[in-house]
Amino acid sequence: MERYPVRDINSNKRSHETGHVSQDKSLELKLAPPGENKPLISLHYISHKSHSNDKNKNLMSSGTKRDFLDTIIGEKGRERNWLTGSGDQGYQSGVNLGAPNSSKRMDVRPIVGWPPVRSSRRNLLSSSNSSKLETDSSKNGGKKGEKPEITEDSLFVKIKMDGVPIGRKVDLKSYSDYDNLSSAVDELFRGLLAAQGEISSSEKEKMEKTKTITGLLDGRGDYTLVYEDSEGDRMLVGDVPWQMFISSAKRLRVLKEISSSYLRKI
Amino acid sequence: MSEAQAQMSEDDADLAAAAGGASIRTAVVTTGGDYSSPYPDQVLENVLENVLIFLTSRRDRNAVSLVCKSWYRAEALTRSEIYIGNCYSVSPRRAAERFRRVRSVVLKGKPRFADFSLMPPDWGAHFAPWVIEMAEAYRGLEKLYLKRMNVTDDDLAVMARSFGNFRELVLVCCEGFGTAGLAVVASKCRQLRVFDLIEAEVSDDDEVDWLSCFPESGTCLESLIFDCVEFPINFDALENLVARSRSLKKLRVNRFVNLEQLHRLMILAPQLTDLGTGSFSPQDHPIDQEPDLVSAFTACRSLVSLSGFRETVPDYLPAVYPVCANITSLNFSYANITADELKPVIRNCHKLQIFWVLDSVRDEGLQAVAATCKDLRELRVFPIDATEDNVGPVSDVGLQAISEGCKKLESILYFCQQMTNAAVISMSNNCPDLVVFRLCIIGRYRPDHSTGEPMDEGFGAIVKNCKKLTRLAVSGLLTDKAFSYIGQYGKLVRTLSFAFAGDSDLGLKYVLEGCSKLEKLEIRDCPFGDSALRSGLHHYHNMRFLWMSTCRVTRQGCREIAQQIPRVIVEVFRWNQILEEGEKSDLVDTLYLYRSLEGPRADAPKFVNIL
Questions:
Q1: Has the keyword Nucleus been applied to this entry (chain B) (predicted)?
Q2: Has residue B83 been placed in a domain?
Q3: Final residue before a domain boundary, out of B51, B78, B105
Q4: Which of B78, B101, B129 is the last residue of a domain?
Q5: In this predicted model, what pLDDT tens digit does every residue of B183-193 receive, in sequence order?
Q6: Do residue A49 and residue B390 have CB atoms under 8 angstroms apart?
Q7: From start to end of B161-246, where are the E strands?
C-alpha cells in the first residue's frame, strides 16, 4: 500500500505553488484501499482546477461539485464502492463530478481515450521538429515488436519459411522437445507450401499428397530449421539443451538450403 | 432497351450483360390458357432489373427491396455494392446468399471508440470469415473497403489469390497485417488501381520490401496512399514504381520520405491531383543544393489536394504557393506551424473546401482562414497538446470568426480548452448548412467561460437552427436540459456522441425517445443507468449500435434488455480482467449493443459476455 502526502486544500499558498507538480503527482498516484488520505487527494485534484482565473466562478456555478465533495468526505462507507468500481480495471473510469447522484467512480489517473484523439495524433509537440529520419527508434514498437510475446504460459516467436511469404507464430512452451517442434513446423507449413499460387479450394487434397517435411534438424531433409538467438546470431536448432533453446530463441526460420554461410550471421 | 444500353458507361456494360442474361428467361413461354403463367412477372422483373441498375443509393435500394418479393429478388440481383455497417449484424453466408452479383464490398467492424483505446485489442471484427466466403461467392469482386477490421496477412493473401479482377483496396483504421500481406497484394493483384492505407496500423515484423513487389512492367495504379506507415520504405523502389505508374493521380507518402526525395517523385509525376508530402523536411545532411521545389509544385497543374507535412520545416512552406489557388483540400493537421507561418499560405487558398489544421495556429490563424476561405465546407482543428488545461491556443474567438467567414460550412470538428455559448449560437445562426457538428472542449465539465453557465444553450441552438444536422458530438458542462433540446429538435440526427455529460437518466431518455432517426449512439462516463436504458427498448432494433462505457448500467439491466428484444446482441465487457476481491459492484464497465440477424457471435473472446 502506498503512502502519499496529505495535502490541505485550505492551504492556498502551498497548493498554488505546487500547482502543476501536484496535478502531476495526483495523476501518478496509485489507488490504494480507502483511507482518509484518498478523498483529500481527489479534492486537491479538483482544487487545482479551481486555482485558475475562474476560480470563484467555477466553485459557484457548479454548486453540485461542492455537494459531491461533501458526500465523498461524509460517506466513507461508500468509498469502497467508487474505488473498486473501476480502480483496478485500468484507466477507463472518469472523474464524474457533474451531479451528486452520479457515479462515485473517481480515478486520478489520466483518463483513457480522452480527449478523443487517435494515437497517431498524439505527441506532436515533441516529434514535430525532432529528428526527421529516425529508423528503428521510431518504430511503433507496440504490440508486435521483434521481441517474442511472453506470458506465463506461452512464448510466441515468429517463424518464417522460405517460399512462404507470410510468417507464422509458434508457442515454444507448448512443445516438450525438439521432435515435437519439428513435427509441428512440418504440419504448419506443409499446407501452406502446397497452397502457394493456387486458387482452387482443393487444398486438403494437396495437403495429403505433399510429403512431410522431415529432416529439419539433422540436415538430411530439404529444409533446415534455424533460429536467431538473443545476441542476434543465427544458430542451428538442436545444438543446445531444449530449455536453453527456449530461453534464448527470438525468432525461427525454415531455410531451403543449408550452407555454413547461413550460420553465425548477425 | 438497346438505347439505354448504349448510354451506359463501360462499367455498367458488364452489369447490363448480366441483366441481359435474365431476358433469356422470357423465351420460356407457357402454353396459352394458363392464367397463372409466370410470363408477365418475368417481363416485369426484367424491366425492373434493367431500371434498378441505375439505382445506386443503398437506402433507396433498401426501400425498393421491401415492395414485394419480386422486387426483392430483382433488387438483390442487381445490387453491385453491398455496405455492411457492422460486420456482426449479418453473417457472410447470409449476405452472399442474398446478393449474388457483387463487385464492391464495404465492411465496417469495431465501433469508433475503439480508436481511443476503449476497446480491448482482441475483441473481434475479423475479416477472415468474410474473405473465405467471398472467395467462393464473389469471384468477380473488384473493390474492398474495410474500416476498423482486424485483417491478417493471410486474409490479404486469400484475397489476392481469389479475385482475378481485383482493383481497389482501401483499409481504414485496420490492423493485424504487415508488410508480408502488402507484398502479396502488390504482386498478385495485377489490375490494382487503388491501394490505400488510411490510419491503419501496419506491422513491420517481416520487413518485407513490399514496394518492390508491384508488377515490373508497369502498373495501373491510380492511387497509392501509405502515409500512416510508421517505418521506413525502400525509396528507390518507390521512385521506380512512380516512374512506371503512368496513371498515378494520388500519392501520399509517409514521413520517411524527405524533401529531396519528394522532389524526385514530383518530377516524375506532375499529373498528380492529390499529394501527401511525407515529412516535408530535408534530410539531415544535405549534399546537393536545395531542390527546386517551387518548380516542382508549379508543374503540378492538376493538384487539388495537399497533405502530409509530418515534420514540417516552415522555411520550405512557401514552395506550395504555386498550387494554393487551385487546392480544394489542405491537411496541415500534423504541421506544428504558427499563425504567421500559415497566413501566407492560406491567404491564397480561395477555393479551399476542406481544411484540417493543428491548433498551433491559434485563433489568429483561424481568423485568417475565415477571411479567405469563403467556400470552406469542412474544418477540423486538432489539439497539438491533448492534455486538459485552463486555456488553449484556440477558443470561442476562433469559432466565432469561422462562423462569420465560412457560411457554407457543413462539417466541423473543433478541439479547444474553453468555449462560450455565444460563439456556438453564432455558428448555429451563421452556418445553416451544418450537417456535422463536433465540439470537443478538452477540459471536462467546463462551463461557458464567460458566463459560467452550462453549455446547454449553445448545443440547443445547434440542433434547433441547423436543420440538416445528422451528426453531433457534445462536451463541456451539460445538464439534462441539453439532452432535452437534442431530443426535441434533433429529428434528423443519426450519430450522437456523449462524454462526461448529463445529470441523470432523464438525459438519455430525452434522446432515446426524441431522436427517431438515431442509428449510432456512443456514450462514455455519463450518469445514465438502467432506467434510461429501458427507455430505448422500442428503438434499439432500428439502430446500428449503442455503446455505453463507465456509466451506471448494471448487469441486470443489460440482461433485461437482452431478454426483451430479439435480434439484438448485448455484449458487456471489461477492459482488465482482474477484479478486486470482494467486489460486488453490479455496474457494467462497457455495454455494446447492436442489432443482428445472427445469434451471439462465436468468436467473442473470454472477457466478452453476451447476455
A1: yes
A2: no
A3: B78
A4: B78
A5: 999 999 999 99
A6: yes
A7: 168-172, 175-178, 194-198, 201-203, 223-225
